[in-house]
Amino acid sequence: MVSFISRVDEKTLKRERQRARDLRSGQWWKNQLGKGICYYCEGHFHPSELSMDHKTPVIRGGRSTKNNLVPCCKECNNEKKYMLLCEWIAQREEEGRPLACARQELY
Ligand SMILES: [Zn+2]
Hints:
Distance between the termini: 22 Å
CATH topology: DNA Binding (I), subunit A
Structural class: alpha+beta
Helix content: 25-40%
Number of domains: 1
Largest sheet: 2 strands, antiparallel
Bound molecules: zinc ion
Strand content: 5-15%
């Protein structure tokens, strides 16, 4: 599980984390949170319960762009960790409890 981490250098990690912070303080992110919906499970939450998640984690080569950042509830955040979204979707499918967002994700 650890082997892929070293592929992204420290400079990239720092830059992408900073970009995520910048986006998080902007109006676009406020609008995302305002919907009150976790992207992954499509559950309804108070905006304060949602955090920012990278669909493709930065350490897996993802970037802090609007189409890679989604609001995410605590439970999904804890479960997904550093998985790619397609990996998580496949895993949940196997476990017989498919993710709600699988319907809208083309992969
Ligand atoms: Zn969720």
